[in-house]
Amino acid sequence: MPYIKQNARKVVLDNIVDTLLTELSFGRDDKARAGDITYVIYKILGYAYFAKPTARYADMTMGLGILDSVRESLEDDFKRPYEKEKKDKCGWEPEDIILIGE
Questions:
Q1: DSSP letter at 93?
Q2: DSSP 3-36
Q3: How many domains are contained in the chain?
């Protein structure tokens, strides 16, 4: 995430996240790990934006907005470049799509 200064990531956040990732990755299959990751995200966002007694609509919207932003960042950083590489490798062009009935 480019908006968090590198020293803040390295000093505090990476240590916490690296420990969590080690625990989530050890000896787990993909489905079990997906459930674990979902639980962690749910618990963090739930605690920070939804479950507090003073939570309001704006808080909940912010929590959901975080999920949207993370999804978009992952799409931009990983999925789109992957798809472009595969399309370039296979020679795919949008014009290759033939509509039924034409």
A1: -
A2: TS-HHHIIIIIHHHHHHHHHHHHTT--HHHHHHH
A3: 1
Cα dist from 71 to 6, 39, 45, 93, 100, whole Å: 21, 17, 15, 26, 33
The tens place of each residue's pLDDT in the chain, 102 residues long, gives 567 888 878 888 888 988 888 888 777 788 888 888 899 999 999 999 999 899 999 999 999 999 999 999 999 999 999 999 998 998 887 777 776 665
With 0-12 CB in 10 A as exposed, 13-18 as middle and 19+ as buried, what is 36? Answer: middle
Packing angle, helices 57-74 and 30-45, rounded to 10: 140
Q: Residue 52 belongs to what domain range?
A: 6-90
Q: Which two tokens stand for residue 82?
A: 């992957």
102 part of a folded domain: no
Are 49 and 55 in contact by the 8 Å Cβ rule? The answer is yes
Determine, yes or no, domain membership for 30: yes
Cα angle for residues 95, 97, 98 (degrees, 5° grid): 110
